[in-house]
Amino acid sequence: MNIFKLSIKNIFNKPLSSSISLALLILGVGIISLLLQLNTLIKDQMDNNLRGIDMVVGAKGSPLQLILSSVYHIDSPTGNISFQEAENISKNRMVGSSIKILYGDNYKGYRIVGAEKKFIDLYKGVIKEGKDWEKPYEVLVGSKVYEKLKINLGDELVSSHGLRETGQSHDEGTFKVVGLLKPSNSVIDQLIITSPQSVWNIHDDHDHDDEDEHEHEHLHEQDDREITAMLIKFKSPMNIIQFPRQINENTNLQAAVPSYEISRLFKLFGFGIETLSYLAYLIIIVSGFSLFINLFNSMRERKYEMALIRTLGASRLQLSTMIIFESLALTISGFVLGLLFSRFGVMFVSSLMEESLNYNLNSFKILNDEFWLLGLSILIGMVSSLIPAIQVYKMNISKILANA
Amino acid sequence: MLKTKELEFNYENQIFFKFQNIDLKSNENLLIIGDSGVGKTTLMHLLAGLLKSNSGSIKLFDKELNLMSPSQLDSFRKNNIGIVFQRPHFVNSLTVKENLQLAQYIANKKDNNRIEDILKNLNIFNKSNKKTNQLSQGEKQRASIALAIVNSPKLILADEPTSSLDDNNCAKVIELLKKQATDFGAQLIVITHDSRLKKHFKNTIEL
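Above: the input entities. Below: the structure tokens describing the complete assembly.
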């Protein structure tokens, strides 16, 4: 038996009032930690996929939509642009490198992207099994796609038109899996990637059934091809100010800067996150009050007990320590359980995101801000036990025993 | 062993007590008897070092209590004095055995054999693992005696141990206290208004 054990026994002796304070604290800490985790995970995921893309050129529309569709592959594209126009821009002296990508089809909800091979290098994609595509209709498959859909080398994938699973299927659009990519923790994990030619081929046939037009088509093939967007890296970061404006003003294309759009998005998010975290801090403060009231009441109930412990020879300090221990044991376990709660929350949100966006977020590492939460929990424990501890310290045992 | 001289105490609300001198030799028990309001509890608290007198001296085991600091008194108390209260008090979150272990812990001792011996001697060994609020009144009283003697005090102070008991139980409890004191080598001072106890003591002081 010792003072610490006694504190724990005291907590378990009053399970109801202890658990109310505990539940409030778990809720408060849990919500804040969940927000921190999600914010960090989403930001990391977003930044991670932003690498090396200074600007995106696509069809006119919402710049955010353009970024979400062609950098993060979670929204519909704004439309298509002409291959020739994109080619002209890529030859501009301010452009360091450019990658053309085009959409058209999906396989069971996973997007099939036609892209230049540089696209895979951009995300540091490495082939785990098989080889690069050589001919049209050969595809590389991202790690989440083949894990989820149990795709193996040599499988044939029949694509559907559009980006949603429900699109009509092409009889001609049969792709052959020639390579599987290693997990790269970036967007290519959830993509099926092929040569631009494959996508052009399918949609040429699809869009122009008419034989006459088909003839006509072949004469102008070079002019008529379209792409969905072009990802651009500048030669110098300075160009980011001037070049997008030039494109937006002088051409019928749209240029969007991912870092602007994403910070705009986070500002919108941020407002909600901030409001929610104020609420959570409020809950933590309420839990502090409830803890204080608990301790204060139990001090009154237990005053004979305290007096007894003092007459047994315990010092004032030992008794005050016991009170503070009781409070800290509750707040620290509240913190630990709160973190646990938030990790389950992350897992839950991640499974929701995976279903709707094919994104997943998983991390069990402890963020720096969560150490602050630990500090806050300890502080709450100390502050709410301060007055009861002082009371116990100043307790007049003789008076209490005389009134027994 | 115990010597008090011109002991005086007054509370802030002007209640004033002047106690007669006490001189108790080693190996003797003492009954202090007096009506309500003559300062029995005050005297007991003075002897236990829970209160400090305004003037006079208390010499207990050759130590002057009035010269000790509060923390010295705490440690003197845990090494020398066991207290049996009028109403038994326990730490309610603990079992009988754990209460005794806590008392030992406070006095920096650890001796489960002694706890066993005491509980057997008081006939409540089968209640060791019961919470104290599950005990009957008589068991509580015996458990509180166990708590007072677990650290082998040289002096047991008992405050009105028999006031709420019938004649039969009164005799039983006082004999039990005396037996425990003898068995474990302690002296016993009982403070009470219960005149039934007079016949059990050779030394009596009337306040």
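Note for the figure: The longest helix of chain B spans residues 167-183.
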